[in-house]
Amino acid sequence: MSAKWVAYSAAILAALLWGGNFVAVRLALEYFDPYLLTALRYAFVAALIPVVGWPRLPLHLLLLYAAFSGIGQYLLSTVAIQMGLSPGLAALLMQFQVFISLLLGWLMLDEKVHATTVIGSVLGLSGLAGVLVIGDSKAPLLASLVCLTAASGWAAANVMIRRAPDNLIRLQSATGIICLPVVWIMREQLLPAAPSVMQALTQVPLAGWLPVAYVIVASFAMAQVLWGRAIGTIGVSIVSPFALLIPVFGVALAWLLLDERLSVQLLVSVLVVLVGVGVHMVPLARPARAPRMREA
């Protein structure tokens, strides 16, 4: 299998893991506040620093990445769900990072954007809008704005991965170290009546720890590494539209795990998303033409 198809597979698997993340976060928030849940993520990856080492990025770039990915992408999306945003709608709104990533990749990295990518992205987001309308979801305005800010952070983190590549395990571990005290202070200031960390942790049953394990290991560590590896191989503008699959996987997993009902209209909307990804893949699947030899 070529490196290109390995990158495609990594992007699709990352989308599957992130699709499950929104279901797992909703389940975990029944036992944890969003700041403590995010702090547990950071504590896990921060503990890997002695093994993986510190990133070789300038400090200012590392701080920017930590802000975009750690605080933006992860903390704010979790806070949005805690504020009342449904997991499915959160998955939908996070996919606005596709358009933002395409724009930033074109403006800052001079990446070529295929016409099929634009068409496929529009089709995909149209299908996702159909999922939202059919589901008759209602989103609190403030929670929606928080989630859109998280999507912007994700897009900016994508561009930074491409512009200043480094080992993703090291980047996430350093992000954990940088963001952990920030989230701790935010919890103390914004949730003064919350139970102490030790009290909160000792009161959680096994059913509460299982979704946390998924959030930490699968959607935070594994998915981020797979996504970053795909971006490093084939670029931001090619990888970003695969994120349109996240709500598709999220809907399927919610149906399987949360017993949410699937209608024919909903399945049609999901099919539109898949068609959009297929359109995006058309020029990428064609084998590169060998250069023509000039006749002597």
Summarize the model shown.
Helices cover 77% and strands 0% of the residues. With 296 residues, the protein is mainly α. The radius of gyration is 19 Å and the shape is globular.
Protein traits:
about 300 residues
Instruction: Please indicate the percent range of residues in DSSP E strands (runs of 2 or more).
Output: under 5%
Largest sheet: none
Rounded to the nearest angstrom, the distance between the terminal CA atoms is: 36 Å
Average pLDDT metric? 80
Kindly give the count of domains.
Answer: 1
* Shape, per Cα inertia axes: globular
Stretches where pLDDT is under 50 for at least 5 consecutive residues are none
**What class do helices, strands and sheet pairing give?**
mainly alpha
Number of strands: 0
The number of distinct helices, counting runs of at least 4 residues, comes to 14
* Secondary-structure element pattern, one letter each: HHHHHHHHHHHHHH
Query: What portion of residues is helical?
Result: over 70%
What value does the Rg take, in angstroms?
A: 19 Å
